[in-house]
Amino acid sequence: MPAPIAAIALRNKAVVYGILFKAAAETTRVIAADPRHLGAEVGMIAVLHTWGQNLFHHPHLHCSVPGVGMSPEGRWITCRRGFFREANGDPYIVRLIATAPWSMSC
Fold first, then answer.
1. Residues 6 or more apart from 90 whose CB is under 8 A from it?
2. CA dist., res. 67 & res. 42, Å (int)
3. How confident is the model over 7-64, as pLDDT tens digits?
4. What does pTM read for this prediction?
5. Neighbour-count burial of 31, counting CB atoms closer than 10 A to its CB (0-12 exposed, 13-18 middle, 19+ buried)
6. What's the CA gap between 35 and 83, in Å, rounded?
7. For strand 57-64 and strand 68-70, is the pairing parallel, antiparallel, or unpaired?
8. N or C end: fewer C-beta atoms under 10 angstroms in the chain?
9. Are the C-beta atoms of residues 62 and 49 closer than 8 Å to each other?
10. Cα angle, residue 40 at apex, residues 38 and 45 outer, rounded to 5°
């Protein structure tokens, strides 16, 4: 999260952290639902960390996503190794992240 938004989060925790959780969940959902990646609906657990190792304010999420999901037909689909890592260069995902509520253009 950019420093200016992290500063806003200090005074507006519920709003900013809510946006952070929603953005992470939506990004995970979009990547997992894409047949090029998994083609299934997945669950996710996210933990909010508000301070970094150096004890500076650094809000971020740690997310854990299972390696299986439910297909639209109702069957379990197991992911192949590294299916989330493959999304890093996907233009759609890059655009989704770039238009997130905290993104800023300089």
1. 31, 36
2. 8
3. 888 888 888 888 888 888 888 888 888 888 788 999 989 999 887 777 888 888 888 8
4. 0.70
5. buried
6. 11
7. unpaired
8. C
9. yes
10. 95
Give CA 9 to chain center in angstroms: 18
DSSP H or E segment with residue 88: none
What is the residue-wise DSSP string for 12-68? Answer: -HHHHHHHHHHHHHHHHHHHHHSTTTT-SB---EEEEEEE-TTSSEEEEEEEE--SE
Residue with tokens 């854990």: 64
Of the candidates 98, 103, 102, 95, the residue with the CA atom closest to the CA atom of residue 18: 102
Q: Are 66 and 42 in contact (CB under 8 A)?
A: yes
Here the tokens at position 62 are 């740690």
